[in-house]
Amino acid sequence: MTRDEASGAGCDPADLPRHPRAYPESLPVTGAWQPGDEVGGRLFLDVAPGRPFALEGGGVLDQVTMAYETWGELAPGADNAILVCHALTGDSHAFGRSGNGHATPGWWNGVIGPGCAIDPERHFIVCVNVLGGCQGSTGPSSIEPGTGRPYGSRFPTVTARDMVRCQAAVADHLGVDRWLGVVGGSMGGMQVLEWGVMFPRRVRSLAPLCTAVAASAQQIAWSAVGRTALALDPRFRGGDYYDAGPGDGPAAGLAIARSVAQITYRSNEVFTERFDRELVNPRAVYGPWDRFQVESYLDYHGAKLVRRFDANSYLVLNRSMDLHDIARNRGSLESAVARFSSVPVLTLSIVSDTLYPTVQQTTMRDIVRAGGGRCDHHVIKSPDGHDGFLLATREVGSHLAGFLREVEGNG
Amino acid sequence: MTRDEASGAGCDPADLPRHPRAYPESLPVTGAWQPGDEVGGRLFLDVAPGRPFALEGGGVLDQVTMAYETWGELAPGADNAILVCHALTGDSHAFGRSGNGHATPGWWNGVIGPGCAIDPERHFIVCVNVLGGCQGSTGPSSIEPGTGRPYGSRFPTVTARDMVRCQAAVADHLGVDRWLGVVGGSMGGMQVLEWGVMFPRRVRSLAPLCTAVAASAQQIAWSAVGRTALALDPRFRGGDYYDAGPGDGPAAGLAIARSVAQITYRSNEVFTERFDRELVNPRAVYGPWDRFQVESYLDYHGAKLVRRFDANSYLVLNRSMDLHDIARNRGSLESAVARFSSVPVLTLSIVSDTLYPTVQQTTMRDIVRAGGGRCDHHVIKSPDGHDGFLLATREVGSHLAGFLREVEGNG
Q: What is the arithmetic mean of pLDDT over B345-366?
């Protein structure tokens, strides 16, 4: 067990070091899981068994499995269920320890937990690995029925709308007619917004955090350059690399895509504070490939992702983010937002987030309000950039707790 | 001749379209060259003939050639000479048309030109292709003496200090004992600062624009990811790709490095204004590699750079930027800056520049002033991001003109 996994600071992570300089022994500690809690067991659901699942983009999947986890218990009135939607490289393990099939601790420990905003002692919490993912749900590495081989390059394009339809099937299965809240940041927030447009009567509140009503040109540009780099890796083999042998996939390419993303997820301020111009080896300065600490950091995060994530899933989910646009084929942004005008919305911005800048969340807020809806908006003064929605658990949790309590009170 | 090259708007580019939506027929027009001007002829100087040239990093070059261009005439008192230092993918062709050996029009047309801040009718203007470059100066694609083969991977690490020593040799050759001004943005600004520290008595003024006293962790991170992507290209062959056959170099890898850089050079605002979510083909939406216009833009700029730039030069110059730190081996930043405390300094920021954010230039200003020096600082309200130092020619030229005139008046 690493130090991360053993940490148990409950919902008060203030005593944890935020940006230790030494690396990589002390990665940022985001976990706040309580020792003694059980690891959430992963469950599986066959969505629409026996029927093909038609995707928004025109593709068809003959069989769709959703992997999900739950924490807490559904109340007799089924009015305490919260759906947590994960971001690009997240999975269903939003809460708990690592180990037992989970490569990392819960990605939202500290927002989810006993006494936290989303509380397994009060709420029935559900998190579903998205369609196209690689942590149990159907994705490019799944076996294509009838072929006995992984989909690879044949896996179809999926969108946030497809993901939400799969999540709705899980809700049906679990007996959740209406979520108390649907909550998520970044790519997760895209799903939250689609829940509002697609199933407004199935949601009592929405919390799309650090996200946008549509991916911007700059966001698409960052995605594109990462995907192009990944595909340049000769081991990518057009996406059909699963038969090439264990470990012979496009690890280098995926690591580069991750590095690009990792820089956009953080901020200039944090990079300067943590790494400044420190060298890996202070005596190795002038070699063409001598390295600064920040390069080592990028390599480390690239290698870490490669160990737990499939390159094809990265491409598929990344592309779904580029395609995110709640207005597509719905006439206008206004008419899409009008669908959930009776549902209270909370959105958050991180002041240092240059990837999903505050203007995207204020745009969302203004459109919701212009349509007669309610949208609360807060800016969190964290230096952590886009990753603030994962790291600033105290501030995110505080705003979310207040919002959810009010929604619960109005039940 | 393209539309860019034919444009002749003098120093008033206000009537040129700034951000046309259609693409790629209408790239941003930065040229302001006057028809009838001659293309600057490229000249060559053998630096320290017969003697090895020892580099800061420990490498040695047996022969060093500098390619440079000049415009205007050196005054009898040799007091009107301005050195213009180019940025990463620039070259000596700071002013003039394209054609006749120049792939692009002068990169600072509009700042340089008749009636402009830097005026060939009043000034003797010099621009030197940097050491490590690929436009005539010695670089990785040059033939290594005694081997008959290009250096490739054997080309040593160079720093801004090495570049400046080569420029000083050109100054000696041209009879310029003291520059009226040394001027440049981004990587060019790094050389400007090194001129101040290394040769304070040879400069009457310094204008390091949109640059920093040392590369930041985030800037290093962006460099690193581009270089790693370039090296992933199987055609890179560790840097020894020149013998592989014409056009068989790491074009795809260099294009990715360029794409990464291109996004950091611009701004979210400009990308949204120019491209938003427009598709290359509005009917091709859901294919895994269907493209948005912004992707086409990145591809175009990648391909354009590949046609005129050597991948090894890109790596060498990029690395020199990471190594930029005027304090290195000089005790402290303060003691380095103290060397040019009697030289007036002008620096500029672009408000939307997230790669070289304003805080870097205010830091520079504050350190110069704390040491008793003079540093003027202005923020230009351009949406063009870091590239604003190339594109906002009117504003850059205006500040530069006022600064240089004052220095000239104090001659």
A: 98
b/e map of B379-396 (b: 16 or more CB within 10 Å)? ebebbbbbbbbbbbbbbb
d(CA B181, CA A5): 58
Residue A194: CA count within 13 A, CB half-sphere:
27
Residue A36 CB contacts under 8 Å (≥ 6 apart), including other chains? none
- What is the C-alpha to C-alpha distance for residues A367 and A267, in angstroms, rounded to an integer? 28
Average pLDDT rounded to a whole number, residues B92-113: 91
**pLDDT-derived band at A72, boundaries 50, 70, 90:** very high
What residues in A contact B322, CB-CB < 8 Å?
Answer: 292
Distances (CA, A) of B121 to A411, B34, B80, B117, B326: 78, 13, 10, 11, 34
Q: With bands split at pLDDT 50, 70 and 90, how would you rate the model's confidence at A322?
A: very high
- Nearest CA to B404 among B108, B125, B76? B125
Looking up tokens 């302001």 gives: B32
Q: How confident is the model at residue B26 (pLDDT cuts 50, 70, 90)?
A: very low
Give the number of other Cβ atoms within 10 Å of residue B226's Cβ: 27
Distance from C-alpha of A194 to C-alpha of A83, rounded to nearest angstrom: 13
Average of per-residue pLDDT across A319-344: 98
Partners of A84 in beta bridges: A127, A183
Nearest in space to B219 (alpha carbons), one of A304, A292, A358: A292
The number of helix segments (H) and strand segments (E) in chain A equals 12, 12
Distance of alpha carbon B176 from alpha carbon B173, whole angstroms: 8
Express as a percent the part of chain A with pLDDT over 90.
84
Closest listed residue to residue A123, CA positions, set A72, A69, A170, A68: A72
In whole angstroms, how far apart are CA A375 and each of A208, A372, B366?
Answer: 10, 10, 42
Question: Which CATH number is A3-218+322-409 given?
Answer: 3.40.50.1820
Whether A277 and chain B come into contact, CB under 8 Å, resolves to yes
Instruction: Kindly tell me if the per-residue pLDDT of A60 is higher than 90.
Output: yes
Tokens encoding A117: 């905003």
Portion 37-76 of A in contact with B at CB < 8 A: 56-59
How far, in Å, CA of B190 to CA of B215, rounded? 9
Which segments of B1-60 does DSSP mark as H helices, in order? 3-6
**Min distance A136 CA to chain B CA atoms (Å):** 22
What is the interface size between A and B, counted as CB pairs within 8 Å?
A: 147
pLDDT tier for residue B411 given thresholds of 50, 70 and 90: low
In sequence order, the 6+-apart residues with CB closer than 8 A to the CB of A402 are none
- Compute how many other C-beta atoms are within 10 angstroms of the C-beta atom of residue B146: 8
B323 vs B403: CA distance, rounded Å: 29
Taking all residues of chain A, what is their mean pLDDT, rounded to a whole number? 90
Q: What residue of B is the nearest CA neighbor of A154?
A: B288
Q: Are A111 and A400 in contact (CB under 8 A)?
A: yes
- Measured in angstroms, the CA of B173 and the nearest CA of chain A are apart by 29
* Interchain pair A319, B285: CB under 8 A: no
Q: How confident is the model at residue A16 (pLDDT cuts 50, 70, 90)?
A: very low
Please check whether residue A313 touches B, CB under 8 A: no
Rg (CA), chain A: 21
Q: What is the pLDDT of residue A245?
A: 76
* All structural domains of chain B with their residue ranges: 3-214+325-409
CATH fit for domain B3-214+325-409, picks 3.90.79.10, 3.40.50.1820, 2.40.30.10, 3.40.50.1380: 3.40.50.1820
> Using CA atoms, how far apart are residues B151 and B312, in angstroms rounded to an integer?
10
ipTM of model: 0.90
Statement: residue A337 has pLDDT above 50: yes
Is B394:B357 a contact under the CB 8 Å cutoff? no
pLDDT recorded at residue B279: 97
pLDDT-derived band of residue A411, with 50, 70 and 90 as boundaries? low
